[in-house]
Amino acid sequence: MPLWIPITIAAAFLQNMRSTLQKQLSGAMSAYGATYVRFSFGLPVAALYLAGILWFTGASLPMPNMATMAYAVVGGLAQIVATVLLVALFAYRNFAVGTAYSKTETVQTAIFGIVVLGDHLTVGASLAILVSLFGVLMISMAKSDLPLGRFWRSLGEKPALMGIASGALYGISAVSYRAGALSLGLEGFVLPAAFMLFVVLAIQTATMTIWLWIYRRNDLKAAFRLWPQSAAVGLVGALGSIGWFSAMTLQNAAYVRALGQIELVFTFITSHIVFREKTSRLEFLGIVLVVGGLLLLVLGR
After folding, report:
1. pLDDT for the residue numbered 90
2. CB 222 within 8 A of CB 106
3. Half-sphere exposure (CA, 13 Å, Cβ side) for 200?
4. Over residues 240-256, mean pLDDT
C-alpha cells in the first residue's frame, strides 16, 4: 500500500478529533477564536516536530526560496479566508446551500493541481472523486433537509457563491502546500512537509493574532485563558496537519483531499454508534457512495 494512503487516513481521523475538541470551545469563543487556537497552539508542536527531524537526521534547516514563501503565504491566507467564508455562511437563512457547495473542494483542488503543478488524474481517479463528491453532497443535504431541486436552483445566490469560493480557496491552499514543499527541492517528504507546515502556521498565527487583536480581542483573551483546551486542539490539529502536509508532498493533492473525506465515515460511525443518532436513507446512501468512491480511488492507485 502506498504510504500516502495510511497517512491520509490517520490525518482525517485526527481532523475529526480536532473538530470535536473545537466544538467544546464554542461556548467560550467564536468560530474565529476556535480557528485561531488551531493555528497558534499548533505552531509550537510543528516547531518541535521540525526540530526533532533536524536533530535526528542531522540535516540543515532548509533555506526557502521566493516560490516557497509565496506558496506558503497564498496557501495560509487562502485557508483562513476559506474558513471565514464558511463561518459567515451561518448568518444566512439558507446557509445549508453554501456549505453543500463548499464540498466541491476536491474537484476544484484537482483543477488547480492541473493548472499550477501539471498534476494529472487518471480516468479511474476522476470517476472516484466524482462518486465520493455526490456522496458528500447527499450527506450534506440529508443533514440540513436540503431538497435536490433547491440545491440546483440556488446556484446564483450569494450563499452558494460563498460556498463555491470557500471550496476553491481550500483547494488553492492544498495545492499551494504541495507546491511549496516540492519547491524546496529536497529529497524525501518528511523534512519539506515539516518545514512547510511550520512556515504556514507561523504566517497564519501572526495574521490572525493581529486581526483578532484589532477586531475580536475577547476571542484572543479566551484562547489563552482556556489554554488547556486550546493546547489540546493545537496538539491534535498539528498532528493532523503533519499528516496532511506529508501526504500532499507525496501525492497529488486532489487524491489526498478526496481520500480525506473518509473523515465523514468516522463522523458517521461516531454519531451512529456512540450517540445513537438515527440515519436517513439519503445520508446512508451518501456514506455508501463516499466509501465506494474512496475504494475506487485506492484500488485504482
Report:
1. 65
2. no
3. 32
4. 93
DSSP string, 201-263: HHHHHHHHHHHHHHH-HHHHHHHHHTHHHHHHHHHHHHHHHHHHHHHHHHS-HHHHHHHTTHH
- CA angle 46–247–117, rounded 5-degree value: 110
Contacts for 246 with CB less than 8 Å, ≥ 6 apart: 4, 7, 189, 190, 193
C-beta separation of 76 from 245 below 8 A: no
Q: Which residues contact 77 (CB under 8 A, 6 or more apart)?
A: 203, 204, 207
- Cell 483578532: give the residue: 212
User: What is the pLDDT at residue 268?
Assistant: 73
Highest mean pLDDT among 92-101, 116-125, 135-144: 116-125
Tens digit of pLDDT for each residue in 143-193? 666 666 666 666 667 777 888 898 899 999 999 999 999 999 998 999 999
Return the C-alpha torsion angle 44, 47, 49, 55, nearest 10: -140
Neighbours of 7 (CB within 10 A): 24
The domain spans of the chain are 4-300
Angle at 172 between CA 106 and CA 126, to 5 degrees: 30
Residue type, 136: V
Helix extents (H) in 63-189: 66-89, 95-102, 105-117, 123-144, 148-153, 158-183
Nearest to 79 by CA among 114, 39, 128, 43: 39
- Give, to the nearest 10 degrees, the angle between helix 158-183 and helix 95-102: 30
* AA letter at 131: V
The pLDDT assigned to 112 comes to 87
User: Dmax of the chain from CA atoms?
Assistant: 59
Quick one: pLDDT at residue 106?
85
Q: What is the pLDDT of residues 49-69, one digit of tens each?
A: 999 999 999 999 999 899 999
The CA distance from 130 to 8, in Å, is: 19
Give the count of alpha carbons within 13 A of 221, CB side only.
5
